[in-house]
Amino acid sequence: MTPTYEAPFPEFNKEVVFSTALISYISFYPTLDLIVDSTLYKSYNSNDLRPSFYFFTNRRKNIAFQGSYTGLYSYFFGGIATDEIYLIRAECYARASNTTAALNDLNTLLQTRYLTGTFTNLTASSADAALALILAERRKELCFRNLRWSDLRRLNKDPRFQVTLTRTVNGQLITLPPNSPKYVLPLDPIETTTGGLEQNPR
Length: 202
What we know:
Blueprint: E1 16-18, H1 38-41, H2 50-54, E2 55-57, E3 63-65, E4 80-81, H3 82-95, H4 99-110, H5 127-141, H6 148-155, E5 165-169, E6 172-176, H7 189-193
Antiparallel strand pairs: 1-4, 2-3, 5-6
C-alpha cells in the first residue's frame, strides 16, 4: 500500500478482522471541517509511516484524517483489526507485570509501521514504563476509530494517565477535566419530564 489521497487502505485489507463503518457527520468530513489535534500529529517519529497514510492537508489547509480501514475517507472504521488486538494484549501483559511479553507484542506491531530498517525495538525498565509506551502507541495507532472516548473514561480513573481536554471556541477556553460529570451526556428532557428518569448530573 502507498499513501494516496482520501483512501490509502482498502476496506478488507489483511489487518481487518471484522469490518464495519461508523455513522458519519458532515463535521467529520476530512475535506471540510475535520482538524486533527496538533499534539497527536506531532507525536509521530520522523521514520514512522503512519502520518503519511493517516493524514493529509485538506483544502482549508488543516491537517485532516484519511487513514480509515473502510476504504472511504468519509466513513470511519469501527470494526476490529489486528493492530488493536496486539495493543490490547500488550496492555494486558503489562498490567500483569509481564514486561517482556508486553514489549514483544508492541514491537511486533511497530516494526510494520516504520520505514524498513529504521525501527529500533522499544525497551522499558518496568511493567509500568511498558504500559505507558503501549498507551501512547494506542493513541497514535487507533485514532478516529471511536475508541478515544472510552479510553479517556477508563484511563482517567488512574492518576498516571489522566488527561484534561481543552479547546478554544470563539476565543473562549473550554476545559473538560478528568472524571467530570460532563463525560455523560444529558438525557433528553422528555425522558425526565414524561419518563420520570433522573437527569444526569452536570
